[in-house]
Amino acid sequence: MGKAPSKRSQVRRVPKRADYDRATISAILDEAIFCHVGLAGEGGQPFVIPMLHARVGDELYLHGATSSRLVRALGAGAPVCVTVTLADGLVLARSAFHHSMNYRSVVVLGTARLVEPAAERMAALEALVERLIPERWGDVRAPNPKELKATRVLAVPLDEASAKVRTGPPVDDEEDYALPVWAGVIPLRTETLDPVPDARMEDGTEVPGYVASWGRGA
Ligand SMILES: Cc1cc2nc3c(=O)[nH]c(=O)nc-3n(C[C@H](O)[C@H](O)[C@H](O)COP(=O)(O)OP(=O)(O)OC[C@H]3O[C@@H](n4cnc5c(N)ncnc54)[C@H](O)[C@@H]3O)c2cc1C
Fold first, then answer.
1. Three-class SS string for 79-105?
2. Segment holding 37, helix H or strand E
C-alpha cells in the first residue's frame, strides 16, 4: 500500500506485502520493544546492534552512552538502517518450500540527527521510558545533569521507511493441498509473567497498575 519513498526502500520480493503508509509503519515501530541498528563500521564491516527506540512523530529516537562507538558513529553522520520485527506466527505449509512466517517488520534507512538541546534530550529519554512502560516516567527520578551529559540522543527520520507484512494461512501449490500433512499457523505473541519485585524495595511499595497490566499489541 502506498508508494515507496525511494528506490532503495522499495520492497521487491513479494511486493504485495509491502506497506509504505506512515500509520502502518508507526504502529509496528510502537509495538516493537527493541530494534536492530545497522551501520557500516571500519573497513566496511557491517554491525547490527540491538537498541531501544521511541517513535515521536516522524522520528525515531535512539540513545546510548556518549562513549558508545555506535552512538558516536551515528552522531558523526554514518548512514544507518534501523529494523524492527514482530513475529506473529509460524506458517506450516504442506511442502517444505512454502513454510513461512506471519510477521510485521519495518526497515528505516537514513542518517541520524544528533540531538543537542538538553530539553529535547530529556524529552527523548522520557519518550524512551514511556513507550516501553507507559506512566513510568512520573514515578521515577529523572536523569540528573551528569547522567544527561553522559547520554547521547539521536533522531532518525522516518522519511525513508518501508513495512512488510505477512498474514494468513500457508499458500501451497495446488496439487499439494491433497497431501495428508497438517498445515496451518502456530500464532506467536509476547507473553508477560508475574512481575518479580526487587529484594531491596521498601516494604509496602505497591505494584503500580502499569506494571501489573504491562503488555504489547492487542
Ligand atoms: C534489547 C536490547 C536493547 C538495548 N538498548 C540499548 C540502547 O537503547 N542504547 C544502548 O546504548 N545500548 C543498548 N543495548 C546494548 C547495545 O546492544 C550495545 O551493547 C551497546 O550500545 C554498546 O554498543 P557499542 O557499539 O558501543 O559496543 P562495543 O562494546 O563497542 O561493541 C563491540 C563489539 O561487541 C559486540 N557487541 C556489542 N553489543 C552487543 C550485544 N548487544 N550483543 C552481542 N554482542 C555485542 C559486537 O561484536 C560489537 O562489534 C541494548 C541491548 C539489547 C539486547
1. EEEEEEEEEEEEEECCCCCCCEEEEEE
2. strand 35-40
| Residue 142 pLDDT level (bands cut at 50, 70, 90) | very high
- The atom of ligand 1 lying closest to the CA of 47 is 49
Angle among Cα 205, 209, 214 to the nearest 5 degrees reads 120
The Cβ of residue 142 has, within 10 Å, a number of other Cβ atoms equal to 12
| pLDDT tens column, 5-21 | 988 888 888 888 888 99
Residue with cell 512520573: 138
The owner of cell 500500500 is 1
Spell out the residues 6+ positions from residue 214 whose beta carbon is closer than 8 angstroms to its own.
Answer: 133, 192, 195
Mind giving me the DSSP string for 121-158?
HHHHHHHHHHHHSTT-GGGSPPPPHHHHHTEEEEEEES
Q: Which of 22, 84, 10 is nearest to 59 (CA)?
A: 22
Q: Which residues does residue 110 pair with via DSSP β-bridges, in sequence order?
A: 80
pLDDT at 80: 98
pLDDT tens-digit readout, 25-50: 999 999 999 999 999 988 989 999 99
Query: For residue 75, what pLDDT is reported?
Result: 95
Atom of ligand 1 minimally distant from the CA of 71: 26
**CB under 6 Å to ligand 1: residues?**
34, 47, 49-52, 63-65, 68-70
What's the DSSP call for residue 169? S
Nine cell digits for residue 154: 539521536
